[in-house]
Amino acid sequence: MTRYTPDLLAGDLADLTAIRRDIHRHPETAFEEVRTAQIVADKLTSWGIEVHRGLATTGVVGTLKGNRPGQKTIGLRADMDALHLQERNDFEYASSIPNKMHACGHDGHTTMLLGAARRLAAAPDFGGTVHFIFQPAEEGLGGARVMIEEGLFEKFPCDVVYGMHNMPGFPVGHFAIRTGPMLASSDSWEVVFKGTGGHGAMPDRGTDPTFVAAQFIVAVQGIVGRNVPSSQAAVLSVGHIAAGTPGSPNVIPSEVLIRGTARSFSAEVRNLLEKRLAEVAAGIAQAGGCEAVSKYHRRYPALVNAAEQTSVAVEAAAMTVGRENVEANTSPLAGAEDFAFMLEKKPGAYIMIGNGGTGEGGCQNVHSPLYDFNDRILTTGAAYWMNLVQLELGDAA
């Protein structure tokens, strides 16, 4: 079995860097990845890979059959979309589109999978089928869920699926993964506290929802501290508060809107957070003579890696960079990923690839206006995908 390393793919780095920087310069946000999808489709077609387009509007799936017998099929997924963010970098390939930026590295994810696809198409020495899944709209709009709803796994059956994401602050040449819950579910919630409001000089003549809202914001942290089991993890954060008008600070508003995010790693804790947010809001509102209207929106489920596929991913990463550079039991992260929808349907695993630490390219955190994907890891990621294919399909007969 061939062992692919970044050094073995070093000759591809210049071309991959050019592709990545071109995508970076022309970022496209959710379900609008028209130019990016065209680049992907054109590249795959030029390498002799069968291309299907149209799932989730801009999704692209490339299908490559090995030249050896085998029935197993695997899916390799990369996301393509950018964020609504104004880039503050000043290098020559910085975003040319105002208020849009590849600030999470999806330009790099797309390029790494393209790099693997080109190499595998040139020498498909495996048995079975690889589906290269280029997904739109990971950033908040659930492109993975939409692709599934529109028949992804019916049109392109996969026995297993794999995903990968870059990790700033983690060294170049390193990978991190764990079995079980690796990323949290991501939900949003909102509470509207309703009172009568009134004159700020005479609060006794009405009911004040701002006083109730202030108590609720503090009490929210008690849900995690006193209701979530100590063996579990969860996060509740307030991200938006709206009430009153700036021009009338002497008026107690009649309504206060609070919105936030909820993160958890199990269905039990997720259910608990939804239940307790509504209960705490209602209880505090009643004590203050107000009404609480609560809504809880389930967005991305927790991302859970299957044990068998995690072992395969660890071995593929070890083939790529050496076992000593693979963290096989990393701590769970409270971030979320819509690849979780695919892992609800198929067994698989999601791995992190180091994007570099302080003093290295790409060291800014994701979603920062100063973030950049580290081109040094393009061949590392491509080699990982190729080793994964060898492990899953190389021995098929």
Please write out the topology.
Blueprint: H1 13-25, H2 34-46, E1 50-53, E2 60-65, E3 68-79, H3 106-122, E4 127-135, H4 143-149, H5 152-155, E5 160-168, E6 175-176, E7 180-183, E8 185-194, E9 198-199, H6 209-226, E10 234-243, E11 251-252, E12 255-264, H7 267-287, E13 291-300, E14 303-305, H8 307-321, E15 326-327, H9 339-345, E16 348-356, H10 378-393
Parallel strand pairs: 3-4, 3-5, 5-16, 6-15
Antiparallel strand pairs: 1-2, 2-4, 6-16, 7-14, 8-12, 8-13, 9-11, 10-12
Helix pairs in contact: 1-3, 3-10, 6-7, 8-10
Task: Report on the architecture of this protein.
The protein is an alpha/beta fold. It has two domains: 10-183 and 302-393, Aminopeptidase (3-Layer(aba) Sandwich); 185-300, Alpha-Beta Plaits (2-Layer Sandwich), CATH 3.30.70. The protein has helices at 13-25, 34-46, 106-122, 143-149, 152-155, 209-226, 267-287, 307-321, 339-345, 378-393; strands at 50-53, 60-65, 68-79, 127-135, 160-168, 175-176, 180-183, 185-194, 198-199, 234-243, 251-252, 255-264, 291-300, 303-305, 326-327, 348-356. An eight-stranded mixed β-sheet has the order 1-2-4-3-5-16-6-15, with helices on both faces. Strand 1 and strand 2 (60-65) form a beta hairpin. Residues 187-279 form the Peptidase M20 dimerisation domain. Keywords: Hydrolase. It holds the Pfam family Peptidase_M20. This is M20 family metallopeptidase.
